[in-house]
């Protein structure tokens, strides 16, 4: 869990398109309000934000605020990989590592 929190805390340092919802989702995740994190990550992830997709993947992989679902987690991590091809390589590597 500490590794997940560290990854979430460091993600704002990664450059790329920013969404206010990601910041709100990350903050909710860090304080343990996983239902709020899900609500904040969903719109930008659906719109193609790789960082928010990673956030949703982490929630599904651990069953935080949502039922644990490794298929959903893999799907969100895979979407993050696809959406980060032209973006920051750190985001892509984080998504690939979690997906695999």
What attributes does this structure have?
71% helix; 100 residues; mainly alpha; 0% strand; 6 helices
Quick synopsis:
The protein has helices at 2-10, 20-30, 34-46, 50-62, 70-83, 89-99.
Would you kindly provide a written description of the structure presented here, covering whatever features stand out?
With 100 residues, the chain is mainly α. It has six helices and no strands. The longest helix has 14 residues, at 70-83. The radius of gyration is 12 Å and the shape is globular. The two termini are 18 Å apart. The model is unreliable at 12-17 (pLDDT under 50).
Name the structural class: mainly alpha
Q: Give the oligomeric state of the chains in this entry, treating copies of one chain as homo and distinct chains as hetero.
A: single chain
Could you give the count of β-strands? 0
Radius of gyration: 12 Å
**Through-space gap between termini:** 18 Å
Kindly estimate the percentage of residues that lie in beta strands according to DSSP: under 5%
- Give unreliable regions as ranges: 12-17
Reported for the largest beta sheet, the result is: none
